[in-house]
Write a structure and sequence with these properties.
The chain is globular, with a radius of gyration of 17 Å. The protein is α+β, with helices and mostly antiparallel strands. The chain has two domains: about 80 residues, no CATH class; about 50 residues, no CATH class. A hairpin with an 8-residue loop joins strand 1 and strand 2.
Length: about 140
């Protein structure tokens, strides 16, 4: 569950970009819709802990977001922005394995569990057609 109380999101020192009084996201599929520049990405960055330039409180599973480590946050929330910044010459499957980093040790060695989880996602989302394509040639929807 994500609980948001009296959030004011800022992009700089100017007036708030977005204000949310009280919002609880319990379960299900949610869509964030708005015009260009409305603050959708800024809001998602705040929820995921990437942007801390806000006032108010965000709780995730009854823990205040600022008390959650980056590794634990990566296990609870993931965000895929449409303008991705993936370095190198990766294939789709390589990017799927990046999602397993929070579960790996210091040397980020791929385990059997990592492979099992990645294959489970490939099956569930029917990603077979794109896993061996270069990530850079995938459409925005395929990347997401």
């Amino acid at each position: 569950m994500i609980s948001i109380q009296n959030i004011k999101l800022f992009l700089g020192v100017e007036k708030p970009k977005l204000e949310v009084s009280n919002l609880e996201l319990i379960t299900g599929l949610w869509a964030l819709v708005g015009r260009n520049g409305a603050g959708k990405s800024t809001f998602l960055r705040a929820l995921s802990g990437v942007n801390s330039n806000f006032e108010g409180a965000i709780q995730i599973n009854s823990k205040f977001q600022n008390s959650i480590s980056a590794q634990q946050m990566a296990k609870m929330i993931s965000v895929v922005f449409s303008k991705t910044e993936i370095f190198g010459n990766h294939k789709g499957i390589d990017v799927l394995y990046l999602g397993r980093i929070p579960y790996q040790g210091v040397f980020s060695r791929v385990t059997g569990e990592d492979s099992r989880k990645v294959n489970e996602v490939i099956e569930l989302l029917e990603l077979h057609p794109i896993i061996h394509k270069q990530f850079s040639v995938l459409s925005d929807g395929e990347r997401q």
